[in-house]
Amino acid sequence: MSTSGTAAPGFWLEVDLALAGEEVSATARGSGGQQPAPHMLGPAHSLEALRRFGEWVRDAAVRGGPLESPEQARALHSALFRDGLQEVLLELRGVLRNTGSKKPLLLRLLPRDRELQALPWEALCGPLGALDFLGISPEMCIVRGVQSTKPWLPREVTGAVRLLVVSPLDAEAPARLRAMLQPAIDSGALEWMEPLVGPRTRRDYVIDRLRSEPAPHILHFIGHGGVDTRGAPVLQLTDADGASAGLPVELLAKELAGAFRGDLRLVVLEACEGAQPGTLTSAAELLAQGGADAVVAHLWPVKTDVARACSRAFYRALVGDTRHRGDVARCLHDARSTVLTEFNESAEAFSPVLYLRGSDTTLFSFRPARANSAPRAPVQAEPVRAEDPSLRGLMDLVSRPFSLVLGDHGGTPDDDLRELLHGRMRGTPWAVPEALPMSALAQRFTLRFGPKTLDSHFQEVFRDAMPTLPLVEALARRLRPGVHITLLRMPVLEQALALHRPELPLYVIQPSTPDEGSALIRRRLPGQDWEPLDTLPLDFDPSRDVALVRLYRGYLPDRVFETPLLTEDDYLHGVRDLESVLPPDLADAILGTLDSRPALLIGLSLLAWHHRMLLSRLFGRRPLPRKSLVLLEPGVHEAESWRSGRGLPAGAGIQVVQADAGAVAESLGVGTPGGSR
């Protein structure tokens, strides 16, 4: 039985390997429908003999030495490729040559038994010389197939390939890997995501990140693997106290199921024995069965310098300007060749193996994004630098305690909701101009279809959306204890803070309407999950804790839904003085903190009447605190109004910085998270 899914165009040979008593049988089929008769490898290659072969290769790898005499590897190669299977192999190679195909034949092995999975089949040696190993063959690419119920289809990746590194034990490992890959990052072929190291490798923290968007295309784990008391594979992360804590790979595979259906293609386990089967199965096979297109893992522990060289060669071939670019199997062949070349033909080259769920080894196309889906170019093309005079006020503000007021102007799935609402009313007397503000559009929709229908459409668009905004991510690293306001209907800021500042106690407060009673409160303490609270605890201290006030409601961080403020009537009746929607003590603490610290306003517009009303509700007749600042995109024509104070509380103006949000995020990325307290 082959791996599930539709085979991609190409030529392949699939070989089932199974135990029949103490002997091993081989059953093959080819991409042209060939099905040679099964055959036994013979008594000379019994299970016990194969165990000795595996130990021989492993011992050489542990020594860091070569396979001194390849007779065992050559004999096993001859026992496997003989009779009808050998005829099919030669036939497929001939077809490849005649068609002029530049891709080698895909050899997919399916070892059915745990002990067969543990063997280094990649070290089988052909008849053409002492280094004619399957694992580096230019004519065949060897992979390990899996049985999976998950469907497989080839999927195109446009633009840069996103790489996320998780390194629980070695905080410097991601930086070393990045230095190797810098040319690919500079060329735009690879996007380096913020790695997870140190406290961010707690099990709950890693799971939270993997649930968030954007998902990586490649997940690379650097650390230790093993099996638990049940024999099930685990990856070693950390717990709340920083001690080692195993994450069951079966659980990880379930958590990644959604990402596997989307962008995540490849998992690299740079961990000892990531491909060694436990009582159940190997970590690599579990992840492939769970939906990963491909998993690279190690059969045995390898020395650190060998693992680095292997990763360097693999990624340079995968995302660099090479003839194998994007082809995960051929790039792993290149990596094995590099280890053999650089480390005196060390058998460690046969430790990395590839599990492949589909029939196409090319995972990444690197084709440019289609014109109709290309992101809009920012008005300001040149990146700004932290020392840029135009950013001096912003960098000064974030270097000290401040209050963030994060608006909802741009950067969320609002455009999808807008299109959906327009679509429902298009062609009817209720149709409205495309440029109508969202609040007016939602108001008309509610008058026509009712608030429950608007709620339903909101959930349809926002339920599974979790945009990751680079500027919010960068600011989250800088936020300090205090009070911050978010108007986003998704818990983007909350998740970013939980990800980048896990050491901070975090309270999320969603004010209620007069009919709902008390505010909704969620708390996340270091090392713990989100929990609901009836009231804010008496020991809440804004000088130590973070309070996020969600004024426009929507989805709480534990995914509980509360009707958001969307319509003109919602803003008119729902945005009120904080004193009237929060308990008096809490309102005093929040307002006192807002009055005492400069505010950083992002995603707000003076052209939106509900934003002007919000500032009035927050600050009353008082001017915004001294050194407050608003960040505007280049080309926005309201900068002078912000400076002069027209439309602001007390008519007092504030500083203005106009710069591309992405460039600012890059500038803010420089420095110590959270700064000094």
Describe this structure in words.
By secondary structure, this protein is of the alpha/beta class. The protein contains 23 helices and 25 strands. Strands 1, 2, 3, 4, 5, 6, 7, 8, 9, 10, 11, 12, 13 and 14 form a 14-stranded mixed beta sheet that branches. Strands 19-18-17-20-16-15-23-24-25 form a nine-stranded mixed beta sheet, sandwiched between helices. Mean pLDDT is 82; it is low at 1-9 and 368-387.
Q: What descriptors fit this protein?
A:
4 domains; alpha/beta; CHAT_dom; CHAT domain-containing protein; Rossmann fold; 34% helix; 9-stranded mixed sheet; 14-stranded mixed sheet; elongated; disordered N terminus; 677 residues
What number of domains? 4
Number of strand elements = 25
Instruction: State the helix count.
Output: 23
Task: Choose one word for the global shape.
Answer: elongated
What share of residues is helical? 25-40%
Indicate the structural class. Answer: alpha/beta
Mean pLDDT: 82
Uncertain regions spanning at least 5 consecutive residues: 1-9, 368-387
Radius of gyration: 29 Å
Query: Distance between the terminal alpha carbons, to the nearest Å?
Result: 61 Å
Strand proportion: 15-25%
